[in-house]
Amino acid sequence: MATNKLAALVVLVAFLAGPAACEGINICLNFNGWLKPSILDPLFCPRGSGPPVPSPSGSGLSYGYYNTRCPTAEKIIKDAVKKAVDENPGIGAGLIRLFFHDCFVRGCDASVLLNTTNSQNSDTEREGLPNKDSLRGFEVIDEAKTAIEAACNNTVSCADIVAFAARDASYFLSNGSINIRMPGGRYDGRESFANETDQLPGPFSNVAQLQASFAAKGLTSDEMVTLSGAHTIGRARCMFFSSRFSEMDPAYAAKLRAECNGNGNTNVNQDDVTSNVLDKQYYQNVLDNKVLFTSDAVLNSTVTRAQVTENADKAGEWERKFEKAMEKMGKIKGDQQGLEIRKVCWRVNNVGQY
C-alpha cells in the first residue's frame, strides 16, 4: 500500500511539474526501453536528456593517428585485450559494450569511464540504470593506459583506448573474421551524468524506439540491426527478459527458466549456440525465436526481417557491415568544449578548473 501511494505521488508530481520533474527520477528511463513499458510512458519525460550529439563526422580523426605520436600504443592495447579475452571471453564482450555505451552518450569521449568529474558529481554514467553493476573491461583500459603513459606521456586519450579495445576484442572474438578500421584522435570529456544514459536503447525497446535511438546518433535502421548482432556474445541478467518466456521457443524458454531459477540477477549467455564467438548466429537465433530481449525479438518483424534474414544467410555479409557500423559509431562526437587527454582514465586531470 505504501509503495502504491509513493508511486502515485511520483506520477502526480511529474504530471503537475512537467518534463522538468524528470530530473533524477528513474521512471524516465522507461522511455528508452530499460524498464517494462507503462501506459504512462507517453505522458512524461522527453527521451535522451543531455547535450545533442551530431551525426558521425569523424572530423579531427585519422587512421594511423599514433604511428608517429606513440608508435607502440596500439600494440599495447591489443596485447592487453588479447590477454583479457584469452582468460575470459566475456571481458571482450564487455569491451565492445563499453565502446557502444560510451559513444551513445556525449559521443566517444570516455565519459563512461569517469567516477570523478569536473562537476564533482557522484552520479556518473557508471551509475545509470543501463550501466550500473553491468559494465565490464575497466581493468583492461586501465592496464593499457598505465603502460601507454609510461611509453608516451600525455599523448593517447582514454577515448581512443576504448575504441581500439573494442576493435581488438571484435577481432579476437571473431577468430580474425572482423577487422575494423578505427581512426584515432579523440579527446576525453570532463563530465559524466547518470541521467544521460537514458539515450541508450534498452532491452524492452520496440523497433520504432530502436530506430529513433540510433537515428539520433546519425545511424541508420540497417546499422541498428547490424550493431544489434553484438548480442551474439556476452551475458545478460534474467530480470531483463524473464517476462517474455511465454513468447520464446518453448524448449529454449524451459532451459532459460531452469538457469534463471527465479533469480533476476542471474546471468545467462545471450547466444546459446556460439556463446563466445562474435559471429552471425544471432540472426538465426532471432528467426528461431531464441533470443533474450524484446529488442532482439522485434527485429523479426516486417520492418527489419529482410535484413535479419540476409545477415543470417549470407556468409561474410554481417561481418563486413559490422566493421563499417563500428567504424562509423566511433566517429560520433559530442560537445568538444574543455576536452583533454586524461592521465588516469577514471578521473579528470584537474577537478573544477574549467
TrEMBL record:
One of its GO terms (biological process) is hydrogen peroxide catabolic process. Keywords: Calcium, Disulfide bond, Glycoprotein, Heme, Hydrogen peroxide, Iron, Metal-binding, Oxidoreductase, Peroxidase, Pyrrolidone carboxylic acid, Secreted, Signal. The active site is at H101 (proton acceptor). Gene3D superfamilies: 1.10.520.10, Peroxidase, domain 2. Ca(2+) 2 binds at T232, D271, T274, D279. Heme b binds at H231. Ca(2+) 1 binds at D102, V105, G107, D109, S111, E125. The record marks R97 as: Transition state stabilizer. Binds 2 calcium ions per subunit. Its cofactor is Ca(2+); heme b. Its EC number is 1.11.1.7. GO terms for cellular component: extracellular region. PROSITE patterns: PEROXIDASE_1 (PS00435), PEROXIDASE_2 (PS00436), PEROXIDASE_4 (PS50873). The keyword Oxidoreductase applies. Residues 1-22 form the signal peptide. Residues 60-349 form the Plant heme peroxidase family profile domain. InterPro entries: Haem_peroxidase (IPR002016), Haem_peroxidase_sf (IPR010255), Peroxidase_pln (IPR000823), Peroxidases_AS (IPR019794), Peroxidases_heam-ligand_BS (IPR019793), Secretory_peroxidase (IPR033905). Disulfide bonds join C70-C152, C103-C108, C158-C345, C238-C260. Substrate binds at P201. Belongs to the peroxidase family. Classical plant (class III) peroxidase subfamily. Belongs to the peroxidase family. Ascorbate peroxidase subfamily. Removal of H(2)O(2), oxidation of toxic reductants, biosynthesis and degradation of lignin, suberization, auxin catabolism, response to environmental stresses such as wounding, pathogen attack and oxidative stress. This is Peroxidase. It comes from Aegilops tauschii subsp. strangulata (Goatgrass).
